[in-house]
Amino acid sequence: MRPTITAFDWVPDFAKGQVRDLRVRWALEEVGQAYDVVYLAQGEQKAPPHRGRQPFGQVPTYQVGDLTLFESGAIVQHIADTHDGLFPPDPNGRARAIEWMYAALNTVEPPVMDHAIATLFEADKPWSKPRLPSILHRIDARFGELSDRLGDKTWLDGDVFTAGDLLMIAVLRILEGEPVLDAYPTLVAYVARGTARPAFRRALDAQMAGFTGTPPPAVIAWLEKQKAQQGETA
Ligand SMILES: N[C@@H](CCC(=O)N[C@@H](CS)C(=O)NCC(=O)O)C(=O)O
């Protein structure tokens, strides 16, 4: 059965290629499952009917038959459970892949998102600049530990790409090109291997092609304020 996901028809430039429907699109591309997309204008995510699909008023969601799911990690796990290609066939391999999925979302992503909050979403707040050194310190610790564990393996569990790699690479690439990631060539090469996969390229192209909308006036005002402040602090 062909699933339907939700995505935004517009996001600010810094978010293009990072919106979390990309993780779901990537998983679907890896397993060769075609899908449909319902596009939401900015603001629509907080109103019915989308609130009914996603209690926090966010994307992505995933609908197939009478199942509606939210949370990109849960969606990727469901795709991996219902298709071949993202979980190893043996139960222990599947358990290890899930372990890495949680590590990506629950251990590595929190400080990475703190960085995004301090440098993008709340860049104009007085507390953001003072927080940045401690955020970078925590990211650096996680990246160092992850780099050590990955070592010279191709993927986190060895030779087989899993849903754990998909989510870990999706998280790491939020900081692609930033010195805190560039300090770890092992991780840079790992992200490059993941994002060179044809399934990732198709998913990214599809997300980018979906940005055909326009921002609402309140968002234009916010972006202009951010730009003006960046000009002042540059
Ligand atoms: N933990 C959620 C996070 C979803 C999320 O943060 N979605 C963002 C886009 S990447 C969103 O919809 N933001 C708009 C909003 O919160 O209004 C997931 O992984 O699905």
Automatic annotation (TrEMBL):
Residues 8-87 form the GST N-terminal domain. Residues 90-216 form the GST C-terminal domain. This is Glutathione S-transferase family protein. The lineage of its organism: Bacteria, Pseudomonadati, Pseudomonadota, Alphaproteobacteria, Sphingomonadales. SUPFAM superfamilies: GST C-terminal domain-like, Thioredoxin-like. Belongs to the GST superfamily. Gene3D superfamilies: 1.20.1050.10, Glutaredoxin. It comes from the Bacteria. Pfam families: GST_C, GST_N. InterPro entries: Glutathione-S-Trfase_C-like, Glutathione-S-Trfase_C_sf, Glutathione_S-Trfase, Glutathione_S-Trfase_N, GST_C, Thioredoxin-like_sf.
